Amino acid sequence: MTEAGEKILLVEDDPSVRTTIVTFLELEGFDVEAFSNTRDAIERLSHGGYRLVISDIYIDDRTGIDILQAAKKQANECAVILMTARGTMETVMAATRNGSFDYLAKPFELDTLLEAVKRAIAARTPDDDEVEAEDLPESEMIGSSAGMVEIYKTVSRVAPTDATVVILGETGTGKELIARMIHRNSDRAQFPFVAVDCGAIPPTLLESELFGAMRGAFTGADRDRIGVFEAANRGTVFLDEIGDIDAAFQVKLLRFLQEREVRPVGSPRAKTVDVRVVVATNRDLQKMVEEGKFREDLWHRLNVVRLTLPPLRERRIDVPLLAHYFLNKYNTRYSRHVKMTDSGLRELNNFTWPGNVRQLQHLIERLTILSPNDRIDAESVQDAIAAMDTKEGGGETLAETEADQIRRVLAATGGNKSRAASVLGIERKTLYRKLERMKI
Ligand SMILES: Nc1ncnc2c1ncn2[C@@H]1O[C@H](COP(=O)(O)OP(=O)(O)OP(=O)(O)O)[C@@H](O)[C@H]1O
Ligand SMILES: [Mg+2]
């Protein structure tokens, strides 16, 4: 099949982007018809004859998803590529569910577009039934960088399957959030999602925690205890910090993944369970395998689909999005009206974020409560970052003037000391000591 001469319909409201794409694709030999609004595009689509539709997502009162549906109505084998600078998990999910062929995060290289066009035209899109229109809900997963859109694409493909997923990434990059997204966008969504922090449970207890235990199986087991795998039947079990499990448990987990059976500790009988397993770690599992610290066969069992979340410093265009999202959230929570300034944003953008999104979140929470004059500017960002640093290092170097900060944070959190400690970025114990010293 020859590509040249294939008819493409383009919907893009930005005139310069529109012209660039049209010129480029025409030079590549395609026949492109461009529209700047959804009404004309949908009208034209009703006449049929297009092999491929390329559309922006946010255009006017209707979206790229409407264009997608009109294209599918016109001819089911019409391929669709959606593009947007505001990609969210929800838009990618909706597009995938509605049979979009590809999804490009703006800005993209023209070569990337060409590859997507060629792939779309070469592929036969499957015959699928019509789908109903959906509104795009607000996202909880923030980030429209190309790196995150790639993650959303993989999630949207893998979520509806039963495949085991390994989520890698530095601390605070959103691994647990992604695990929840996978569950929520699967057929298991109405069944339990159970997260187990494997690093926090003593190795000896992990087996009974996950597989269950019969009464009397060990000291303290005064009744039968159902394990997580059984409790989460038909749902998803999220094994967090999987890099922390010991050699003995690695064998048990491997056997479970092969046989999908649980045998509670002390029980002669095994039961079949139906759970999807998603695991995460911020450790380098591959390296642990090479060093003999993690079983290679278990690694292969787990590594069916692997997602590696990019650190925040490698997707800086997400920093302002996240900062505004968290600012909004904490302004509401603490009834504040703190505003972000340009200089504040610039300062946030320049930071390296070793603690990734979690660190940014804590910083904004702190700034929302403590910002003088209700403004987040360069200086307050610098101060907050410096304060976090000392706390991560020493733990007890809060200056005397910070007694005032502690009071304000406690007031904002309604006296909740755990929350206050987390906002201040110190341990709860440290906060208690300080409160004692301050005679609060
Ligand atoms: N893209 C995102 N959009 C909104 N919030 C996010 C995003 N990524 C992370 N967060 C928030 O940052 C915090 C840390 O995320 P999460 O617990 O998923 O990180 P993690 O990768 O599991 O970290 P760790 O390795 O330390 O366990 C959470 O409060 C989460 O809601
Ligand atoms: Mg985590």
Summarize this, please?
Helix content is 46%, strand content 14%. With 440 residues, it is α/β, with parallel strands linked by helices. The structure holds adenosine-5'-triphosphate (ATP) and magnesium ion (MG).
How is this fold's topology laid out?
Elements: E1 7-11, H1 15-27, E2 31-35, H2 38-45, E3 52-56, H3 64-74, E4 79-84, H4 89-97, E5 102-105, H5 110-122, H6 146-158, E6 165-168, H7 175-184, E7 193-197, H8 203-211, E8 212-213, E9 225-226, H9 228-231, E10 236-240, H10 247-259, E11 261-262, E12 271-272, E13 276-281, H11 285-290, H12 296-302, E14 305-308, H13 318-333, E15 339-340, H14 342-350, H15 356-370, E16 375-376, H16 378-393, H17 402-412, H18 417-424, H19 428-438
Parallel strand pairs: 1-2, 1-3, 3-4, 4-5, 6-13, 6-14, 7-10, 10-13, 15-16
Antiparallel strand pairs: 8-9, 11-12
Helix pairs in contact: 2-3, 4-6, 10-12, 13-15, 14-16, 17-18, 18-19
The chain binds adenosine-5'-triphosphate and magnesium ion.
Strand order of the largest sheet: 2-1-3-4-5
Q: Helical stretch count?
A: 19
How widely separated are the two ends?
78 Å
How many strands appear in the DSSP assignment? 16
The CATH superfamily of the largest domain appears as P-loop containing nucleotide triphosphate hydrolases
Q: Helix share of residues?
A: 40-55%
Q: Report the portion of residues in β strands.
A: 5-15%
Gross CATH architecture of the largest domain: 3-Layer(aba) Sandwich
The shape is flat
CATH C-level class of the largest domain = Alpha Beta
Overall mean pLDDT: 86
Largest sheet: 5 strands, parallel
Q: Which fold name corresponds to the CATH topology of the largest domain?
A: Rossmann fold
How many structural domains in the coordinates? 3
Rounded to an integer in angstroms, the radius of gyration calculated over CA atoms is: 26 Å
Going by helix content, strand content and strand pairing, the class is alpha/beta
